[in-house]
């Protein structure tokens, strides 16, 4: 039995949260800071000075020696620059611990090595980090000691966003403004704030660290680039929700403790479908905090794994033929006084508001399906989306039987726009059954599923930041709300106008609703008939960022400028090309230096044994000869494929234009990689296990 921990005591103990602020800050300063946090007011320098001082004292008590502006550059992971609190020694050689308001609010990391997609020319290479005081600071403990981490946004000298946080915060403002505008139309005068709530479910794999270190592909690319399926795969599904093994259990216990201290409400944990796969979900939080917390979750999963002789793989597809990992992004909009706009509610009046919200979301998702798809695109996710795995690359919305039926009724009744018909429809709405939260079945194949009082966007990749998908969700829904408000604000008869609008949206965007099996071939055909986009790869998804439609959307709500969007396009093509380049080079290295030499060794042993057997006795060696012939043929195939891969990888490196290069990597290099993998995986099944130069899938997946 390990030591007993009291969750209530440790939860948030390393976070500079509201209760710490209230306890330690002078009343007036606390009030000013709260105002800044709640109303987005600017923090004045005097207040900042006091907050910095108190924060530093608190952090030092927690064991911090350094502070760091913690930010999220466009690489999708977090970055930080550590500064110690110590001042220059005085003339007696003594130092003091310092931290000023200026250092709290603003930082200037040497940012020239972060991707900016041309936004930050070298002559103005400065980047600034600015405190996002709506996400609390925390002290993180690891091998280098304690560090006070200050969540920040990262911008260029001219104020262009160089990170994932800034656009997210902008999109949260947009959805706040438009949601409040909509609520006011329905007579709500009390809500002051509407915030997107997000709960991401994180999937991951655990493998033994010693074995991981014997696989260059896992080390360099995070996934296996070779590997034959073990005799037992996931077909028995005995792992899903299976009991958690001791070693994994002690790992999860520590992960939970670390996260709880950081104020991350890690709540559920269980085994996933694939062997060695697990999931962790926190309780939902406001979007920017959820984004920060998800970064902490990913970081903690990796860090703690090392202490248990494990390695955590966050890649979307570490093993071919085994389920990949995703991140289900649960999303809703909640007001400061506890109204969830996605809750169907109990009264007809609220149902009408809900139905408008729902149909606005249908409209948003249908209109911007390409953007949502793009927001889930990353190199690893190409192995899942559109590759016969969860979920398909086609965006559709699952409503469940009950809601779909409601929508169908709305569409079919009230053809004419008379008040009678309208009355009828309203009656129809009034007789809606109470939409019980679990009235409908789950649909595990839908990329965007309504689950009671939230939508679950199931396309996001396990290694990705959830900032991008939520930025898109917030913005497209803000747009739909704004457009609805424009109509409703002008209407003479509000009730009639709402009714018409719900019907109009439901009818116009009905095609996006799909409750069937999203993995089936019939759906692919059906979706094509409906005119829904089926964007199969990241390279094809990227241009969605800079269509006229997208630029107009993001500029209207001040989420991205056109220049920022163009920079993202550049960065994403580059990220794609770089990742595939690393994979190709790793394969070349492994094939040349490990696999081919091992196969040659095996053929030599085989040939020698044939001669030895023949010399000893006049017996039939045709089996050995057959094996030798087969192995040699596969070796020759592998050699040819290797030469081709080397050739196309070199060619790819010479292409300058980012989109052309990325496309070449996808169409030529990836194909050549598959061609090399095929004979090698077959060889793995033949060659003596003792001679095979790396742990097999079986070793990695079943022996954790
Ligand atoms: P499910 O079984 O529907 O997946 P879970 O309880 O596992 O539900 O929740 C999945 C995630 O969704 C959790 O992170 C949870 O906190 C989050 N969640 C629950 N309700 C909401 C909501 N209204 N808005 C956003 N996220 C939510
Ligand atoms: Mg779920």
UniProtKB/TrEMBL annotation:
The protein's GO terms of the molecular function aspect are:
glutamine synthetase activity
- Please state every residue range assigned to the domain named GS beta-grasp: 65-159
What region holds the GS catalytic domain?
164-595
By its UniProt entry, which Pfam families does this protein fall under? Answer: Gln-synt_C, Gln-synt_C-ter, GSIII_N
Task: List GO BP terms, alphabetically.
Answer: glutamine biosynthetic process
Identify the Gene3D superfamilies for this entry: 1.20.120.1560, Glutamine synthetase/guanido kinase, catalytic domain
The cross-references to SUPFAM superfamilies, in alphabetical order and at most eight, read: Glutamine synthetase/guanido kinase (SSF55931)
Family, as annotated = Belongs to the glutamine synthetase family.
Record's protein name = Glutamine synthetase type III
The organism encoding this protein is Candidatus Galacturonatibacter soehngenii
């Amino acid at each position: 039995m390990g030591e007993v921990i009291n969750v209530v005591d440790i939860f948030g103990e390393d976070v500079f949260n509201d209760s710490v602020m209230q306890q330690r800050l002078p009343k007036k300063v606390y009030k000013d800071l709260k105002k800044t946090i709640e109303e987005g007011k600017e923090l004045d320098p005097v207040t900042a000075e006091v907050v910095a001082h108190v924060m530093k004292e608190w952090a030092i008590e927690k064991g911090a020696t350094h502070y760091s502006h913690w930010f999220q550059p466009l690489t999708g992971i977090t970055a930080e620059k550590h500064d110690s609190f110590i001042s220059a020694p005085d003339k007696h050689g003594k130092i003091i611990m310092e931290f000023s308001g200026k250092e709290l609010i603003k930082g200037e990391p040497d940012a020239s090595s972060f991707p900016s997609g041309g936004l930050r020319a070298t002559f103005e290479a400065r980047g600034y980090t600015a405190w996002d005081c709506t996400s609390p600071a925390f002290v993180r403990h690891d091998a280098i000691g304690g560090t006070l981490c200050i969540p920040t946004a990262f911008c260029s000298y001219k104020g262009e966003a160089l990170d994932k946080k800034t656009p997210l915060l902008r999109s949260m403002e947009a959805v706040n403004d438009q949601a409040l505008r909509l609520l006011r139309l329905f007579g709500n005068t009390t809500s002051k704030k509407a915030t997107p709530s997000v709960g991401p479910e994180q999937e991951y794999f655990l493998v033994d660290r010693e074995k991981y270190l014997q696989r260059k592909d896992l080390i360099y690319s995070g996934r296996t680039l070779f590997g034959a399926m073990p005799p037992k795969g996931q077909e028995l599904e005995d792992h899903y929700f299976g009991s958690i093994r001791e070693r994994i259990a002690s790992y999860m216990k520590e992960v939970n403790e670390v996260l709880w201290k950081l104020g991350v409400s890690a709540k559920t944990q269980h085994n996933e479908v694939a062997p060695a796969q697990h999931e962790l979900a926190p309780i939902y939080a406001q979007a920017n905090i959820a984004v920060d917390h998800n970064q902490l979750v990913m970081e903690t999963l990796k860090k703690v794994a090392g202490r248990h002789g494990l390695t955590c793989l966050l890649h979307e597809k570490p093993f071919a033929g085994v389920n990949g990992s995703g991140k289900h992004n649960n999303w809703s909009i909640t007001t400061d006084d506890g109204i969830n706009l996605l809750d169907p509610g109990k009264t007809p009046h609220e149902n009408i508001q809900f139905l408008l919200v729902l149909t606005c979301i249908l409209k948003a998702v249908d209109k911007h399906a390409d953007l949502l798809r793009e927001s889930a695109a990353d190199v690893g996710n190409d192995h899942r989306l559109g590759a016969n795995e969860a979920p398909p690359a086609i965006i559709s919305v699952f409503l469940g039987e009950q809601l779909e039926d409601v929508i169908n009724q709305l569409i079919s009744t009230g053809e004419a726009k008379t008040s009678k018909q309208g009355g009828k429809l309203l009656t129809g709405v009034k007789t809606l059954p109470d939409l019980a939260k679990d009235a409908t079945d789950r649909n595990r194949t839908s990329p965007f599923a309504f689950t009671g009082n939230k939508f679950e966007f199931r396309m996001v990749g396990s290694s990705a930041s959830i900032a991008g998908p939520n930025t898109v969700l917030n913005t497209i829904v803000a747009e739909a709300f704004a457009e609805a408000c424009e109509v409703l604000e002008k209407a003479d008869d509000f009730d009639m106008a709402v009714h018409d609008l719900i019907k109009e949206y439901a009818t116009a965007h009905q095609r996006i609703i799909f409750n069937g099996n999203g993995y089936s071939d019939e759906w692919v055909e059906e979706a094509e008939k409906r005119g829904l986009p089926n964007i199969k790869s990241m390279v094809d998804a990227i241009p969605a960022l800079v269509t006229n439609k997208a630029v107009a959307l993001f500029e209207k709500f001040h989420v991205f400028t056109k220049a920022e969007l163009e920079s993202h396009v550049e960065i994403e093509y580059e990220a794609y090309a770089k990742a595939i380049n690393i994979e190709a080079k790793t394969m070349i290295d492994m094939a040349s230096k490990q696999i081919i030499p091992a196969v040659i060794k095996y053929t030599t042993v085989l040939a020698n044994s044939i001669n030895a057997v023949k010399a000893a006795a006049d017996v039939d060696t045709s089996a050995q000869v057959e094996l030798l012939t087969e192995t040699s043929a596969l070796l020759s195939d592998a050699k040819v494929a290797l030469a081709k891969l080397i050739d196309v990888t070199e060619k790819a490196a010479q292409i300058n234009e980012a989109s052309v290069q990325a496309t070449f990597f996808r169409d030529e290099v990836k194909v050549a990689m598959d061609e090399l993998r095929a004979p090698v995986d077959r060889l793995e099944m033949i060659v003596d296990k003792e001679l095979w130069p790396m742990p097999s899938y079986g070793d990695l997946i079943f022996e954790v």
